[in-house]
């Protein structure tokens, strides 16, 4: 599936009776990159989970290439090209790396696993290791590779660098940048590290208490220190 556009209109969503996202609207052209910023607890994970169909929706539309998927279950959204790499890196801990990857290939031939190994050679070295034996960075690579093998046209990455050593972060960001450059996926990245988020994406949105408080280009945000300090925190830009 080639990259798809994403359009979100007046989305409100949450958990049970709790509304977290309120009237969220934005669009991402096919093949482009959006970073989602905001302090802890502002609704970033809830936004990605809602795009994947994992929260309760109170209203609004989610259009993938113009088709509204907001009423679809998450499994249906996955078939329509939405792929989430969750913050929890939910790999199967008692399966090997290779078995985990096989789960992600959907109906593609087994040989496509090589795509994951090309992307992350470390996974090839660890292919017979069990999920629980992997480091945090390797788990992130596996979780990402498994989702990517399903060829999503809209890829949602939730804080992929969290808790990882700088050298691993660089390796992952390089892989995400290569993916983005391939033009095969539209990518949304939730990331606390401002520099990484701005380097990665052309455009940015900032969430505060479940609402979008700023949207614009990465360059505009980078050059406006007062905006960054107001919404994200002092000293975020170096
Ligand atoms: N399963 C849940 N049930 C009820 N409320 C939840 C649930 N998950 C998150 N929340 C609440 O929704 C709000 C937004 O949380 P969310 O995890 O989306 O924020 P976030 O911006 O991703 O934060 P962080 O950067 O810490 O991951 C918070 O007030 C949080 O307590």
TrEMBL record:
Residues annotated as domain ABC transporter: 6-234
Q: Which Gene3D superfamilies match?
A: P-loop containing nucleotide triphosphate hydrolases (3.40.50.300)
Annotated transmembrane regions: none
In the UniProt record, does the keyword Cell cycle occur? no
GO MF, any single term: ATP binding
Keywords per UniProt: Amino-acid transport, ATP-binding, Nucleotide-binding, Transport
Q: Note the SMART domains from the entry.
A: AAA
In terms of InterPro entries, this protein maps to:
AAA+_ATPase (IPR003593), ABC_transporter-like_ATP-bd (IPR003439), BCAA_Transport_ATP-bd_LivF (IPR052156), P-loop_NTPase (IPR027417)
The record's section on SUPFAM superfamilies has:
P-loop containing nucleoside triphosphate hydrolases (SSF52540)
Q: Which CDD domains match?
A: ABC_TM1139_LivF_branched (cd03224)
Q: Which GO terms describe its biological process?
A: L-amino acid transport
Taking the record's annotation, the residue ranges forming a coiled coil are none
The superkingdom listed in its UniProt entry is Bacteria
Q: Which family does it belong to?
A: Belongs to the ABC transporter superfamily.
Query: What is the protein's name according to its record?
Result: ABC transporter ATP-binding protein
